[in-house]
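Late entry, evening session. Most of the bench is empty. Finally got around to the prediction I had been postponing all week. Sequence below, unchanged from the version circulated by S.P.
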Amino acid sequence: MAVVKTRELSGYLDDYLKIGQVPDSDQALNGLQVENGGEVRRVAAAVDASERTIRRAAELGCDFLLVHHGLFWDGNIPATGARYRKLKTLLDAGTALYGAHIPLDLHPEVGNNVVLARELGLEIRGGFGQYKGVEIGVWGDLELSREALTARLDDVLGCRVKLIAGGPELLHRVGIITGSGAAALPEAVAMGLDALITGEGNHHTYFAAEESGINLYYGGHYATETWGVKALAHHLQERFDLPWEFIDHPTGL
């Protein structure tokens, strides 16, 4: 079994994901969030650093937990209640925690958007979805009816996708921003996209899509963001010979 130094692994991830260069929310705190005793033998990957996910990683004997939504999204709060229990579980089990949010969304090889695009058969032609000066999403060519894309998304994501059928029946240009990407709807319309695939959005986006002539697909925040952590954990397995587990804790949201 391979043994990798925790700092070596986190340093590699920092470089590979360009943690220091990609802008993000202050709460993201991308990178190594909790250290362990210094060595990694087994990796766990999950979407969220929830209490149940952390407990499961400890039960599996994983000493490195890789997540998309890290430990500090609820802000700068005292280490009491759930925050205390999460930290105690990590420290008692010797499990390090590494978070990668926007850097994982937009990564060109293992990012949520490019991996989902590959799964759907989308031929990527460029990026879009401006956030603090970077493009988070991808767009490309996909010759498919909007109903056929709904069925494909249902199958790939493993859930029932919500289609707001505001655009053409035959699709040619489709954009993807996983998670909460509905704010990019005006940009998608301006680019002439026939459809935008994302996880979730506000109520008013129903009418915005309907009135702007674009198809809008909501596949769920969680379901659209399992791709990056899985692809990244697989990448680490290939590079460092570290076995990994995906911990699935779907929210249905």
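Two things to note before I forget:
The mean pLDDT is 97.
The longest strand covers residues 134-145.
Will write this up properly tomorrow.
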